[in-house]
From TrEMBL:
The lineage of its organism: Bacteria, Bacillati, Actinomycetota, Actinomycetes, Kitasatosporales. Keywords: ATP-binding, Hydrolase, Nucleotide-binding. NCBIfam families: urea_amlyse_rel. It comes from the Bacteria. This is Biotin-dependent carboxylase-like uncharacterized protein. The keyword Oxidoreductase does not apply. The keyword ATP-binding applies. Residues 27-290 form the Carboxyltransferase domain. Pfam families: CT_A_B (PF02626).
Length: 292
């Protein structure tokens, strides 16, 4: 086996391989997947000299520990966390050199949910439909990391960034999401639509890569019949019968039978992927349908 590989010492609660995803396959029932916080993943790749399509690791809440089999450059971005190499403090948000056999530990998130670990050369598990991303809904891509797993790495293709620390947006204390109403806002009462764009919701602990579930004001329907299944998009805000909005993220189903009251602006979705349970959520309506 090549020495360009990572051994997983501690997998963490949920660590997956992610890249920019596999858009364009919704007609096959395949979600786009990919890193939930795309800007953080892209920054991590730039810091270690990888191209934009290189696969990184996405951790969830409690980080992970990795042992490279050769000298590598790594960078940790996204949710702020403690980073150590062989027990010694190392930089977060900057390139860090890890010698062969050393242990990189990415600690629990201090803020936010997901950290991104880029390694020079990128993680080179076998791609599926053009992407190396783990898709939790369909099961495509590599399985979530387990202790003892070995991940292949590619050859470095660039030079790491020469920075002490790279500025990046912090996880949200309040999640403010711009939303275009429709296509099914007419399935809700006028009062429910007003509450949707003026009320305060909270991120539910039941949230995951498929979607951010919320609690808060109940959105009552004006129509009681069943809605035939129709296509779902990234950022769609679907409202199940209990009346609590669900914001679809990267691993969302490609069809659904509950009405979509609005669609969140794509630029606001990375922050949604970093919102912890209990984070306040506000939906800000945008005039007109289908445009920002």
């Amino acid at each position: 086996m090549t020495d360009r590989a990572l051994s997983v010492v501690r997998a963490g609660a949920l660590t997956t391989v992610q890249d920019r995803g596999r858009p364009g396959h919704a007609h096959l029932g395949v979600p786009r997947s990919g890193a939930l916080d795309g800007p953080a993943a892209a920054l991590a790749n730039r810091l270690v000299g990888n191209g934009p399509d290189a696969a990184v690791l996405e951790t969830t809440l409690d980080g992970c520990s990795l042992r490279p089999r050769s000298d590598v450059t790594v960078a940790v971005t996204g949710a702020p966390c403690r980073v150590t190499v062989d027990g010694r403090p190392a930089a977060w948000g900057a390139p860090v050199r890890v010698r062969a056999g050393g242990v990189l530990d990415v600690g629990p998130a201090v803020l936010g949910v997901r950290a991104y670990v880029a390694v020079s050369g990128g993680v080179t598990v076998e791609p599926v439909l053009g992407s190396r991303s783990t898709d939790l809904l369909s099961g495509l891509g590599p399985a979530p990391l387990t202790d003892g797993a070995v991940l292949p790495l590619g050859a470095p293709t660039g030079v790491h960034a020469r920075v002490d620390v790279a500025p990046q947006a912090g996880p949200p204390a309040e999640l403010v999401l711009r939303v275009a109403l429709g296509p099914r806002d007419d399935w809700f009462t006028a009062g429910a639509v007003r509450r949707f764009v003026s009320g305060v919701f909270q991120v539910s602990p039941a949230s995951n890569r498929i979607g951010v579930r919320t609690t808060g004001p109940v959105l009552e329907r004006a129509r009681g019949e069943e809605l035939p299944s129709e296509g779902m998009v990234w950022g769609a805000v679907q409202v199940p019968p209990a009346g609590m909005p669900v914001i679809f993220l990267a691993d969302h189903p490609t069809t659904g039978g509950y009405p979509v009251i609005g669609v969140v602006h794509a630029a606001d979705l990375p922050a949604a992927g970093q919102a912890r349970p209990g984070t306040p959520v506000r939906f800000v309506g945008v005039r007109g349908r289908g445009g920002f």
